[in-house]
From TrEMBL:
Keywords for the protein's UniProt record, in alphabetical order: NAD
Domain Gfo/Idh/MocA-like oxidoreductase N-terminal: 26-139
Top-rank taxon, per record: Bacteria
Any one GO molecular function term: nucleotide binding
Protein name: Gfo/Idh/MocA family oxidoreductase
Segments traversing the membrane: none
Residue ranges constituting the GFO/IDH/MocA-like oxidoreductase domain according to the UniProt record: 149-258
A Pfam family assignment: GFO_IDH_MocA_C3
InterPro entries linked to this entry: Gfo/Idh/MocA-like_OxRdtase_N, Gfo/Idh/MocA_Oxidoreductases, GFO_IDH_MocA-like_dom, NAD(P)-bd_dom_sf
Region (Disordered): 1-21
Length: 350
């Protein structure tokens, strides 16, 4: 792992003993019972070692996930229920307010991505949890996708050789649930985070173009390109105006390409072939030849469940892939740089 990302990764949660004694049930609270919160409620109930003891949402429980629990009105009432840790699934503009309240009360938390609405807010949240010696994590569920987990493992094992480029495509119809941010902070944050994580390097530069086609205040399409600190070049195509839903990450290196379809959880490897062509013109122009293609048989577990298990393990002091708040701030810094680049027409150095 690069020194830059190594210093950033886990900086606010490592070097401590378990936050909660291993094996002791974790009393979980959940704030936000909307599109994501309803799934978190189900998964928390299913994860061994977690107990959902309190839920809160100022707008009630329109999905009917509270069951026997009283729907509390705010974060203070959630804290008052005597929780050990909380899952925060409120709209992005409330992340700082809710996160700071939890940190002040000594409650560990995982906050849905992005960590906050702005870098400054995210830094305040991360600092509050670090200063209080609390476990603070960010919910980047794509890191738990089986195809990406396998891709990262194989790249780390050297199966791709030197990595040259990582590209992502995240396109689909507009999600009516999103009202407070544009496509950059809602979706591109996933691609920025998973790219840094796969490459084990932070971003060094980024440039982007955005457009507004849906009549909303925020951007709905972005194309971005950049370079990581370790020299890997990256490209992201993200929008929520495409009738075709695409979720694809491609890592290309000296030995071939890994193609992850995160909708299906499939990972395919296409090798650089070593078959020589007798047709001179083809040999000259192709550069590399297409070799064998393998689609791996991999175990496919629900990413959201893996995410909550990672949070549990971090709380218990186990080795964990939970995303630190420092990493969450870096992802937010990169996407804000994308918006700055689109506005200024320049490449932004991070």
């Amino acid at each position: 792992m690069s020194e830059e990302l190594g210093a950033m990764s886990g900086a606010d949660v490592t070097g401590q003993g378990p936050a909660i004694p291993e094996g002791q049930p974790i009393r979980m609270g959940l704030i936000g019972l909307g599109a994501m919160g309803r799934h978190h409620a189900r998964v928390i109930r299913e994860v061994e070692g977690m107990e959902l003891v309190a839920v809160a949402d100022a707008n009630g429980d329109k999905h009917g996930v509270a069951r026997e629990l009283k729907v509390l009105p705010d974060v203070q009432s959630l804290i008052g229920a005597g929780i050990d840790a909380a899952m925060v699934a409120v709209p992005t503009y409330l992340h700082e307010q809710v996160g700071l309240a939890l940190a002040a009360a000594g409650v560990h938390a995982m906050i849905e991505k992005p960590i906050a609405a702005t870098v400054e807010e995210g830094e305040r949240v991360a600092a509050a949890f670090a200063d209080a010696s609390l476990v603070g994590c960010v919910g980047f569920v794509e890191r738990c996708n089986p195809a990406l987990l396998e891709m990262r493992r194989r790249i780390e094992a050297g199966e791709l050789g030197e990595v040259y480029q990582i590209t992502t495509s995240r396109q689909g119809p507009f999600p009516a649930r999103i009202a407070d941010v544009g496509v950059v902070k809602d979706l591109a944050t996933h691609d920025v985070d998973l790219t840094s994580w796969i490459a084990q390097s932070p971003y060094a530069t980024v440039s982007a173009q955005v457009t507004h086609r849906s009549g909303r205040e925020h951007e709905d399409m972005v194309v971005a390109a950049g370079r990581l600190a370790n020299g890997i070049i990256v490209n992201h195509v993200v929008n929520w105006l495409s009738p075709l839903k695409v979720r694809e990450t491609v890592a290309t290196g000296e030995k071939g390409s890994f193609i992850a379809n995160t909708l299906s959880g499939d990972l395919t490897f296409v090798a650089n072939g070593d078959v020589r062509s007798d047709w001179d013109r083809v040999t000259v122009f192709r550069g590399v030849s297409e070799g064998d293609s393998i689609r791996y048989a991999i175990a496919k577990r629900e990413p959201l469940r893996v995410e909550q298990e990672n949070f549990r393990d971090r709380l218990w002091g186990r080795e964990s892939e939970a995303v630190s708040m420092s990493e969450g701030v870096h992802a937010l810094r990169v996407v804000e740089a994308m918006l700055e680049s689109a506005n200024s027409g320049t490449t932004v150095a991070l």
